[in-house]
Design a protein that fits this description.
Layout: H1 6-20, E1 33-38, H2 49-67, E2 71-73, H3 83-92, H4 96-114, H5 129-144, E3 148-158, E4 163-165, E5 170-171, E6 174-175, E7 183-192, H6 198-201, H7 211-221, E8 224-231, E9 238-242, E10 253-256, H8 263-266, H9 272-284, H10 287-291, E11 299-306, E12 313-318, E13 330-333, H11 339-348, E14 356-357, E15 377-378, H12 391-403, E16 407-412, E17 418-419, E18 421-422, E19 432-435, E20 439-442, H13 470-473, E21 474-476, E22 483-486, E23 490-491, H14 494-498, H15 500-503, E24 526-530, H16 536-550, E25 563-566, E26 568-570, H17 587-594, H18 596-605, E27 612-614, H19 621-635, H20 648-667, H21 671-688, H22 697-710, H23 715-724, H24 741-744, E28 748-755, E29 758-766, H25 771-779, H26 782-788, E30 792-799, E31 803-809
Helix pairs in contact: 1-23, 3-4, 17-18, 18-19, 18-21, 19-21, 20-21, 20-22, 21-22
The structure holds ligand ANZ and zinc ion.
Zinc ion (ZN) binds near residues 435, 479 and 482.
């Protein structure tokens, strides 16, 4: 028989599957729908090993669901707008569209060679005008609902990419794409009102997401419950946000962010120079630098605020540890009970006043070593004395302060509205026009899409490149018919991925973003992708679905019923793969050398899928040899080696217990253990071939089940085997086999029998055999009998299912 040669079969089956439309989803087919989706890639030009890792296991699982009778939708597309296309285009003096669509074609071919069950008939790219037309439609709808607005103010600006960024795209003060420290600029920008949904986005009841993702989103939204307290200042009343109104009597100074609007008015002539120098210096620092722990810096403004209860005069300082973007941009400082305020008071010799004391503790010393952040009773606070500090009394204290007109309850969020437009070329044009007479006007629906102009000079200048195309810009006002100019901003590309999962339902639908008659296919039942999207894409798409629901477009609360994240495949050196490190593994090379099935099996085997791990260039030989053995098991006529003593029960146990385990592992997405179970079963079947089981109905059953179990994991070899065994149709439309529960458990176990601690033989007995039965079976083993003959048995130890030990003397 011929040896396993993946190259002789893989391309062949890929062609057959494509010709037969084997993976074309039919919504009317039998079976409960199951919508499985992996995050669509950016068309960078090449599928890297990470793409394979992200797609192979979910593909296997989707195939398994299909074999179990589900009607599985498993589509794929391309997240095609964005800066890399533009940057590549600038470098190569080519059109971003040409670059993008060429890459898409190449990558689609790579996906095909992976042997996935993707339904390519639903593929689209977000840069297709028929797709981004609906981005524009959505935007106008959002605008009409008051969810899109334009506002001036400080925004994040990436000086390298020459565009504004959303807060979500600033990681540790740097651009999440290029790592350049982000600057702040005062600009008039478009926003989406995601904050309207802050509370709802904290509710995860309708979406099963990993704890880590839930936590990251929760922290990002950053809900804080507390109060706003108002102090009088020479520049008028100033309100601070505090989560600890119970410590109000411990406030000994006030701090404003350097950018706070009242800074100028509060600064006295004597302090002007120092304050201005500090404000300028703070403006030069990046947010990372400002948030770093370390020496506290600040300057006194020269003014005082009046404590609303005691009337005490509290000095007003400015310091960069107070952020202008959070709360009201000012705080009441309580150094006795807050770490940062404490460090600041110590640095500048400001008073520290204790107002919370642990029960039974001594008073805080005049010059304490550290603040007290624990629980306790309120002290030194007049009428509040003796109340419990912290959570227990906050509502009560707020109520009292509210009566006095000093405070009111306030909940703040860290979440900010989504800064939505970009000053770059390769994105969806914002569908608005500016008319001198009528102001900003949305483009009428029947004029959508507003297509991106071609042949634009798009070298980044900080201005939108669309501004350079005067012909494109010139249009007429939909309201008065007079001359008007198009908006030249483009949308954040995270818009594209916020609703793409809906487009797959009806990619050719022209009446709306998706055909409402296909709504029964929602939600996505299983969504898979990288954890790096925990906040950006996943938060935005949850927001988008909630707006769609409120628009009456869907009844879903969440886009994804369940989300699971894969880990990352690192270089063999345990570092992230990158061209500069020279540790990149090219899946195309691997496919050429080993075939797609081997690469698939190895990527499932290499690590627990959710963890990932380093590449192992030797390790791939394991799966490669395994598939060779699988091949020989079916096709090699001569079985060599000693005769094996397996029974039909042994073989059926091996097959059905593996079948049960593989099913359970698919369910819980433990893919590496699926491969190891199948490898183990291969060994058993190789032995069974040389046993009396060979040729029996059990043998046939075993091969059949094994063939079916291989199908989701290594689809090409499984199909070839199926075909050569003369089976009907495709193995991929066959049913997943049923576990014979009785065969899958084995009551009997083989346990060792020791004499004086040395193993002398073994017995095959029931796991629950009583002691007397086990011992008599043990004594009957010839090798054991030999060692106890004529000796005195002093002790017999039996641990059911584990071990028998007979201790003898003489
Ligand atoms: C007095 C106080 C006493 C505070 C105390 C804390 C502890 P979270 O939980 O993050 O919402 N704060 C308010 N606005 C701020 C800003 N713009 N920049 C920096 N800090 C700000 O934190 C809320 C607390 O952070 C507020 O409660 C305030 O300090 C500070 F023992 O007020 B607290
Ligand atoms: Zn007009």
């Amino acid at each position: 028989a011929e040896r396993y040669n993946p190259h002789a079969i893989e391309q062949k089956w890929q062609d057959v599957w494509a010709e037969d439309g084997l993976y074309t989803f039919d919504e009317n087919a039998a079976g409960e729908k199951f919508y499985a989706l992996t995050m669509f890639p950016y068309p960078s030009g090449n599928l890297h090993i990470g793409h394979w890792y992200a797609n192979v296991a979910p593909d296997a699982r989707a195939r398994w669901m299909r074999m179990r009778g589900y009607n599985v939708l498993f589509p794929m597309g391309f997240d095609a707008f964005g800066l890399p296309a533009e940057n590549a285009a600038i470098k190569n003096k080519a059109d971003p569209a040409v670059w993008t669509y060429k890459n898409i074609e190449h990558m689609t071919g790579q996906f095909r060679r992976m042997g996935t069950m993707i339904d390519w008939s639903r593929q689209f790219a977000t840069s297709d005008p028929e797709y981004y037309r609906w981005n524009q439609w959505f935007f106008i709808e959002f605008y009409k609902r008051g969810l899109a607005y334009k506002k001036g103010g400080l925004v994040n600006w990436c000086p390298k990419d020459q565009t504004v960024l959303a807060n979500e795209q600033v990681v540790n003060g740097a651009c999440e794409r290029c790592g350049t420290p982000v600057e702040r600029r005062n600009l008039n920008q478009w926003y989406l009102r995601i904050t309207d949904y802050a509370d709802e986005l904290l509710d995860f009841t309708h979406t099963d997401m990993p704890d880590k993702v839930r936590l990251m989103q929760t922290n990002w939204i950053g809900k804080s419950v507390g109060a706003e307290v108002t102090f009088d200042t020479p520049a008028g009343p100033e309100t601070v946000f505090t989560t600890r109104p119970d410590t109000l009597m411990g406030a000994t100074f006030m701090v404003l962010a350097p950018e706070h609007a009242k800074v100028k008015a509060l600064t006295t002539p004597e302090q002007r120079e120092a304050v201005e120098a500090y404000v300028t210096a703070a403006g030069r620092k990046t947010d990372v630098e400002r948030q770093q722990e370390g020496e506290k810096t600040g300057v006194w403004t020269g003014s005082y605020a009046t404590h609303p209860i005691t009337g005490d005069q509290l000095p007003i300082w400015i310091a960069d540890y107070v952020l202008v973007t959070y709360g009201t941009g000012s705080i009441m400082a309580v150094p006795a009970h807050d770490d940062r305020d404490f460090a600041f008071a110590k640095a500048f010799g400001l008073p520290i006043k204790e107002v919370i004391r642990a029960e039974g503790a001594a008073a805080m010393p005049a010059d304490p070593e550290e603040p007290y952040n624990g629980e306790g009773l309120i002290v030194n606070s007049g009428e509040f004395d003796g109340m419990a500090g912290g959570k227990a009394s906050i509502a009560q204290i707020i109520a009292k302060l509210e009566e006095k007109g000093i405070a009111k309850p306030k909940t703040t969020y860290r979440l900010r509205d989504w800064l939505f437009a970009r000053q770059r070329y390769w994105g969806t044009p914002v569908p608005f026009v500016h008319c001198e007479k009528c102001g900003m006007q949305p483009v009428p629906y029947d004029q959508l899409p507003v297509k991106l102009p071609e042949n634009v000079e798009f070298t980044p200048t900080g201005q939108s490149p669309l501004k350079l195309d005067k012909e494109w810009m010139a249009t007429t006002c939909p309201n008065c018919g007079g001359p008007a100019e198009r908006d030249t901003d483009t949308m954040d590309t995270f818009v594209d991925s916020s609703w793409y999962m809906y487009r797959y339902l009806s990619p050719d639908y022209h009446e709306g973003p998706f055909d409402p008659s296909k709504a029964a296919l929602l939600p996505v039942d299983l969504y898979t992708g990288g954890i790096e999207h925990a906040i950006l894409h996943l938060l935005y798409s949850r927001f988008w679905t909630k707006v769609m629901r409120d628009m009456g477009l869907t009844t879903q609360n969440e886009p994804f019923a369940k989300l699971r994240n894969q880990g990352m495949i690192l270089g063999e050196d345990n570092e992230k793969m990158s061209k500069s490190r020279g540790n990149v593994v090219d899946p195309d090379d691997l496919v050429r050398e080993y075939g797609a099935d081997t690469v698939r099996a190895f990527l499932m085997f290499i690590a627990p899928w959710e963890l990932g791990g380093p590449w192992d260039s030797q390790g791939i030989n394991g799966p490669s040899k395994w598939l060779g053995r699988v091949w020989n098991l079916f096709f090699d006529e001569k079985a060599t080696g000693p005769e094996e003593k397996l029974t039909e029960a042994d073989v059926r146990y091996a097959v059905h217990s593996t079948l049960k385990k593989v099913g359970d592992d698919f369910e819980r997405m433990s893919f590496n253990t699926i491969i190891s179970s199948l490898m183990e079963l291969t060994n058993t079947l190789v032995k069974a071939r040389r046993s009396p089981v060979y040729g029996t109905p059990t043998w046939e059953e075993s091969l059949n089940i094994f063939n079916l179990m291989l199908a989701p994991v290594v689809p090409h070899i499984a199909e070839e085997i199926w075909n050569q065994r003369g089976k009907e149709g495709s193995v991929h439309t066959a049913s997943w086999p049923q576990v014979d529960a009785a065969a899958a458990v084995r009551d009997t176990v083989t346990i060792g029998v020791q004499v004086n601690g040395k193993v002398r033989g073994e017995v095959n007995i029931s796991k629950t055999a009583p002691q007397a039965e086990a011992l008599s079976a043990a004594r009957a083993v010839p090798d054991v009998a030999r060692f106890i003959e004529g000796k005195e048995v002093v002790k017999e130890i039996y641990v059911a299912g584990r071990i028998i030990n007979i201790v003898v003397k003489g």
